[in-house]
């Protein structure tokens, strides 16, 4: 995120919400239903979604609207966003089924997994404990400008009883460490967590991506999972040939949030291992589209081969990092006051 954007909510977060709202406006079968995405949009985008939903016009109009959107945002961001959203939904559900009881949304934007994924929200219901469902603690971390808008939306749309499991942590990840702010907000380093860092690394720099991954590996319990997206660096530095990259990069540049960082898939296992993480999955959003869209007859939708989803597991914490994490927890404020104590650099 560039300096000029610091005062304003992220525009690319709104683009992703528009893509999710359009997917949710489709008839079944669709990849997911995000009932909150449309509410995150400015009026002009809401009109687009309303047009796609017009029942009298039928599915053909909805598809025409999507094609218009694909021309307005060329290079595949819409199909990539919906395919990766579904893949990450499944990865989060798997991690929770494997025992994680903490979910971190890093650079959360208008991600509504805390309120829409059954595996997360079912545990938030006070009656759930009686039915043997354990609550999932959710931490939504974002830049203060975007998070302030998200919080207002959530307060308007989600009943208080259905959001008590969510803690908002305002932080500029270019200035503060994700692990530090999470521990200060109450994240437990002794219990497995799943972290989703979706659509963010490409807007950061090498030092902050390094610090975030190293910090998470040092703070989270072994076995915790970090799901993140990245752009293939060869698409950014011109050493690879990928269709659509110039168009997509041009759109985010025009939105004031240019692509600034990428990784090379072949180097990813070693890069992660050096930071205490083991790569367990690495797929392009084109691969995700082949898995989820092609069976629905939608394989022709333009998902990008240079935009990728990876999952890594925390291998083990070096003793020094574990001790630091425990100390941070001992010094952390009580849960109720946690977010107030979190450093929110930038315009916090
Ligand atoms: C493309 S949006 C993705 C949002 C969300 N993860 C999703 O997939 O819907 C990028 C997000 O990264 C966040 N972001 C960008 N730079 C950041 C920074 N320096 N610190 C914290 N968050 C940042 C933005 O505020 C925005 O919410």
UniProtKB/TrEMBL annotation:
Q: Which Pfam families match?
A: LCM
Among the GO molecular function terms of this UniProt record, one is:
methyltransferase activity
* Keywords for the protein's UniProt record, in alphabetical order: Methyltransferase, S-adenosyl-L-methionine, Transferase
Q: Does the keyword Methyltransferase apply?
A: yes
Spell out the family assignment given in the record's similarity comment.
Belongs to the UPF0677 family.
User: What NCBIfam families does its record include?
Assistant: mthyl_TIGR00027
Tell me what this protein is called.
S-adenosyl-L-methionine-dependent methyltransferase
Taxonomic source organism: Pseudofrankia asymbiotica
């Amino acid at each position: 995120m560039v300096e000029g954007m610091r005062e304003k909510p992220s525009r690319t977060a709104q683009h992703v919400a528009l893509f999710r709202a359009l997917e949710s406006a489709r008839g079944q079968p669709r990849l997911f239903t995000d009932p909150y995405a449309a509410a995150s949009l400015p009026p002009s985008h809401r009109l687009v979604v309303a047009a796609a939903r017009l029942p009298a016009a039928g599915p053909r109009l909805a598809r025409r609207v999507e094609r218009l959107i694909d021309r307005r945002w060329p290079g595949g961001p819409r199909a990539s966003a919906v395919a990766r959203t579904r893949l990450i939904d499944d990865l989060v559900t798997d991690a929770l089924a494997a025992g994680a009881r903490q979910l971190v949304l890093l650079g959360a934007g208008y991600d509504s997994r805390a309120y829409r994924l059954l595996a997360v929200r079912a545990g938030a219901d006070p009656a759930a404990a009686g039915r043997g469902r354990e609550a999932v603690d959710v931490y939504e971390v974002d830049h203060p400008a975007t998070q302030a808008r998200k919080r207002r939306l959530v307060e308007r749309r989600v009943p208080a009883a259905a959001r008590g499991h969510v803690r908002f942590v305002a932080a500029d990840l270019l200035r503060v460490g994700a692990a530090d702010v999470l521990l200060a907000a109450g994240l437990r380093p002794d219990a497995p967590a799943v972290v989703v860092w979706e659509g963010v690394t490409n807007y950061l720099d090498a030092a902050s991506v390094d610090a975030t991954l190293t910090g998470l590996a040092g703070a989270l319990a072994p076995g915790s999972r970090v799901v993140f997206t990245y752009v293939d660096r060869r698409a950014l530095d011109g050493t690879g040939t990928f269709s659509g990259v110039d168009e997509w990069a041009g759109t985010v540049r025009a939105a004031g949030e240019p692509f600034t960082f990428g990784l090379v898939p072949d180097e990813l296992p070693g890069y992660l291992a050096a930071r205490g993480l083991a790569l367990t999955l690495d797929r392009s959003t084109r691969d995700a589209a082949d898995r989820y869209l092609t069976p629905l007859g939608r394989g022709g939708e333009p998902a990008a081969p240079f935009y990728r989803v990876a999952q890594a597991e925390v291998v083990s914490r070096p003793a020094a990092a574990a001790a630091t994490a425990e100390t941070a927890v001992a010094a952390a404020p009580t849960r109720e006051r946690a977010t107030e104590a979190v450093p929110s650099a930038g315009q916090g």
